[in-house]
Each structure stands twice: as C-alpha cells, then as structure tokens.
Specification:
The strands form three sheets. A five-stranded mixed β-sheet has the order 8-9-10-11-12, sandwiched between helices. The chain has a four-stranded parallel β-sheet with strand order 3-2-1-7, with no helix packed on it. The protein is an alpha/beta fold. It contains nine helices and twelve strands. A hairpin with a 4-residue loop joins β5 and β6. α6 (154-165) packs across α7 (177-185). Mean pLDDT is 89; it is low at 294-301. The structure holds flavin-adenine dinucleotide. Flavin-adenine dinucleotide (FAD) is lined by residues 9-15, 35-38, 45-46, 48-49, 81-82, 108-110, 129-130.
C-alpha cells in the first residue's frame, strides 16, 4: 500500500526537528519530501554568530548532512522556493516549476526579516542577518587585503588624498601622480593600501625615506576613507607596513602626531610608538581631513 505523502516547506530548524521526531516515533508512516529555499542542508541558525566570528565553519553547524536525508528516504529539493500551494489539487509548486503532491503539508518557513525604512536603509552593505548567505556576505565585506602600490598606481594615492582632504593637504607632491610614480619607482616612497575583497580602497599609509636604501623612514599620508572609519583599519594597515619594514631591515619609522588627530596618534601608541616630545605648528590649521563629507570640523592643527 502506498504511504501518505508528507511535504515539508522549509528545510530549517523547526521543520526538520519535527521530521526527526516523526521518524523516531513512526519511521514508516510517510513518504517525505522537503523543499528548502536555501541551497544547504539543515543547519543550526543559532550558531551563525560563531561562524561570523570565525570560531566555527559552516560545516561545523550543519545539523543534518545530505546523507541523513538519503538514509531516511527523504526526497530533498534544495534551493527551491515554494511559491504556490494548490489546495484543491493538493500540490505545492516551486518558483522553478517543480511540483509535489501532498496528503499532509507542513509549512515551516520561519520568519522574514525586514529593514527599518530609516535614511540609509537602501545603501550598499545594509543587509539582514538571518541565514548563512547573510553571514557570508558580512564575512566577505569584512575581508581586508593589504598590499603596496605599484609605481603605475600613483593616481590611487592622489585620489585618496583628494577624497579625504580635498585640496587642503599641505604636502603638495601627493597631488601629482607623476611625482608619486617617480618616488615609488625610485623606492623613496612606499605606499601601503588596505582594500576590500572587491578592491575598494579603505586606507592608505605611506612611508618615505630621503634616499633609497635609508633605513629610517618617515610615515605619513594616513588616509582612512570615510566609509571605513571606526574599524581600526588604520592600525591594521600600519601594522602591515611595520611588519614589512621590519622584515626589510628598517631600523624604525617616525611620524609627527598632532593633538587634533587623536585617532592615528592613539593607534601609533598602541602599535608601540614612543612619544619623544612636542612639535608645534607642523601642520597648518587649514588642513581638513573630512573633505568627503564637506564637514568643517576635525581640523588638524
Ligand atoms: C543569527 C541568529 C541567532 C539566533 N540565536 C538564537 C538563540 O540564541 N536562541 C534562540 O532560541 N533562537 C535564536 N535564533 C532564532 C532561531 O534561529 C529561529 O527561531 C529558528 O531558526 C526558527 O526555526 P524555523 O524552522 O521556524 O525557521 P528557520 O530556521 O528560519 O527555517 C525556515 C527555512 O524555511 C525556508 N523557507 C522560507 N520560505 C520558504 C519557501 N517559500 N519555500 C521553501 N523554503 C522556504 C528558509 O529559507 C529557511 O531555511 C537566532 C537566529 C539568528 C538568525
């Protein structure tokens, strides 16, 4: 005799836990079919935060691997979203046209996150946090790659300075891509950048020597792009630069911190810098590092 057909919409925690209980109580009761909108087997959604934090992998949080469905004779449709239930014909239909008839139907589709309609809600990078796809998107967004600019990339530094400081930056050669190229090519300047996974510039930190081969460098032209501020990107970029300089045999680097630029000053101290004294009036008050937001505040003095 044919078994009654049980269709489950939603391959998540509640739906599959129900099936586990059912299989324990009456393993041969139903012919089971599961539809899951996500392209993955059932996983522990509660443990998405440790995955985001890098403490666990997706594999670690899978509750029922594909073999479990197979061993229990469950027909599994992954990546198929049910868009219609025809109750008269007792059939469910997925967006891609897949159909399955049912005698019993379990709808276990969880909840639907939404984003508050506040200003900025539609900006790139504003996402919900509900599934492994969202988690992976956040992991990808947080990925930072560090590298040095090639001499042909002088315009990257020029554009970064322009974006952060407008025309107010007092070291004028950084506005001339050709001059930047020459200094990079002659190894009198080293331009370290932090970039997102898709190559977007997050931070720049430069290191200059008077003559190629000098082993003490001046570090400056710190630019953290407005969208990347508040995430310790400057500290990470400078740490990369310092590690590289150490490996290259540099004896040290110095920079002039100013009281009105406390973030990089604090970061330098955290990185092990020693304060050696006062430097008055090095950077004119006309230098503003908030050019991109047109803000008048945050002036360096
Ligand atoms: C980051 C995070 C942390 C959490 N931490 C906790 C915690 O500490 N404690 C706690 O109690 N709870 C926690 N929760 C909540 C908990 O995960 C949910 O309450 C639980 O997953 C709900 O189970 P569910 O089966 O109803 O829904 P889900 O687990 O969301 O499963 C529903 C599934 O149905 C699928 N689906 C939806 N519509 C369709 C469709 N039309 N066709 C096919 N498939 C569809 C979805 O893709 C999803 O895979 C957390 C949730 C998140 C996101």
């Amino acid at each position: 005799m044919n078994k009654p057909r049980l269709v489950v919409i939603g391959n998540g925690m509640a739906g599959i836990r129900t099936i586990e209980e059912l299989l324990a109580l009456a393993p041969d009761q139903y012919e089971i079919t599961v539809f899951g909108a996500e392209p993955h087997p059932n996983y522990n959604r509660i443990l998405l935060s440790p995955v985001l934090a890098g403490e666990q992998t997706f594999k670690d949080i899978v509750l029922n691997p594909l073999e479990w469905y197979e061993q229990n004779g469950i027909t599994l449709h992954l990546g198929k979203t049910i868009s219609r239930i025809d109750r008269k014909r007792r059939i469910v239909m997925a967006e891609d046209g897949t159909e399955a008839p049912y005698d019993r139907l379990l709808i276990a589709t969880g909840s639907q996150p939404f984003i508050l309609p506040v200003p900025g809600a539609k900006l790139k990078g504003v996402i919900t946090y509900r599934d492994i796809g969202d988690t992976q998107a956040m992991i990808d967004a947080a990925e930072v790659n560090f590298r040095f600019l090639d001499p042909s990339e002088g315009t990257v530094l020029t554009a970064a300075i322009e974006a952060a400081y407008g025309q107010s930056y007092d070291v004028r050669w950084v506005y001339d891509p050709e001059e930047v190229r020459t200094r990079l090519a002659e190894r009198r300047y080293f331009a370290c950048v932090a970039e997102s996974a898709d190559g977007e510039l997050l931070c720049h930190e430069g290191m200059a020597v008077i003559e190629a081969g000098d082993k003490v460098a001046h570090s400056g032209q710190a630019v953290t792009m407005p969208g990347a501020r508040g995430q310790h990107i400057f500290t990470r970029t400078k740490r990369f630069l310092m590690d590289w300089a150490r490996a290259e045999g540099f004896a040290g680097m110095f920079s002039e911190a100013t009281a009105a630029h406390p973030y990089s000053q604090r970061a330098n101290l955290e990185l092990g810098a020693h304060e050696t004294g006062f430097l008055l009036g090095w950077i004119p008050a006309s230098v503003a590092n908030d050019a991109a937001s047109q803000a008048a505040g945050r002036r360096r003095q």
